[in-house]
Amino acid sequence: MTKLLRPAPTPPPRAGRLRPVSRPLPSARATALARLRLLAWPLYLLALVQYVRINGVPYANDVVFCWLIGALLAAAVHAGHGLRRFLLVLRDWVPVMAAVWTYSLLRGYGAHTPWAPHWRPQLLADRVLGFGETWTVRLQHALYTPGSPHWYDYVAVTVYMSHFFAVFLILAVLWRRRHDRFRQLLVCYLVLTYAGFATYVLFPADPPWLVAQEGHLPQLTRVVSEVLAESGLPRAGSVFENGSRFANDVAAMPSLHSAYPMMLTLFFWPTAGRRLRVLLAVYPLAMAFTLVYGAEHFIVDVFAGWAYAAATVYGVRWARDRRVRAREARAREARARAASGVSLGG
After folding, report:
1. Which of 57, 217, 219, 252 could be joined to 205 by an S-S link, Cβ 3.0–4.6 Å?
2. How far apart are CA 64 and CA 58, in angstroms?
3. CA distance 254 to 299
4. What's the Cα-to-Cα distance from 285 to each of 104, 139, 311, rounded to whole Å?
């Protein structure tokens, strides 16, 4: 009976004779759709250029995230993967976008706490680390020239701005190449982000530039903002940060700017090659220098961000390994019960 269900074997071709290859000719509609797919990337890039021309360079998490999802959708359309791939992009990324938007909104409300922001503990700790003076003051007095940015100021701006897109770009690459790693890094990112938000609510903290404005430090300059202002490059802010109502100047402890690079370093280090490890080691240090030099964070804010990143990555990895071990233990028990049942039946 099973032989009847098998397809009949194809008879071998005779020697010297060519078999015609029957391929269906593409219809005019299919050809038109294929040509339209080629417009996906040009239309996306045209929309992005027009947005930048009107609103400026997007740098807030939620705006960057929207354009990233658009890029993934454009890639799916261009490759002709069909509706299923399109829906997979929406399934995996829209919930993440909602989480990022929620954080952007809540972060602003986190500034309106009933207790006063903290600045004295961070200042005292940084003065101890700086042997009597904070490293922010030392670095700006030694390196920064108001009104005349140096090459390293532009490097600092580049490193600082990478905070707003680096993690998302890496997530997009993992989504296309290693979906299991995509989910792991995404969990780390969300846990780290909301742990930072909870700390902002419980422990609002002033950054160095704000402490200087209040007269507790010598005059300091927000280097990144000043260099961007002098460059004349417009910037598109967050969808939610339309004024001081949703801004949060006291979200300094921990520094998520320093936490995300360290998260990437700890996440990829076990499987990274030598060259990649050099980049993974340099990136957190470059971001730490930028934050301290630019008066965006105290050194202890940076250390706290690194500690949060380590706790997140190793905590998520421990939970994942524990879940895998539990699943393997259940599988072994099931196999043992099945084997004992067979032996008893025999």
Report:
1. 252
2. 6
3. 10
4. 26, 15, 19
| Residue 345, H or E segment | helix 299-345
Over residues 236-261, the mean pLDDT reads: 70
Q: How far apart are the first and last CA of the chain?
A: 30
CA 59 – CA 48 distance, rounded (Å):
13
Determine contact, residues 181/252, Cβ cutoff 8 Å. Answer: no
For residue 33, give the amino acid letter. L
Contacts of 123 (CB under 8 A, 6+ apart): 134, 211, 216, 217, 298
The whole-model pTM stands at: 0.80
Residue type at position 267 = F
What is the per-residue pLDDT across 149-162, written as a single tens digit (0 to 9) for each? 999 999 999 999 89
Asked if 263 and 312 touch (Cβ cutoff 8 Å), the reply is yes
Q: Kindly report the length of the chain.
A: 346
Residues 106 and 10: their CA atoms lie apart, in Å, by 66
Burial class (CB in 10 A: 0-12, 13-18, 19+), 194: middle
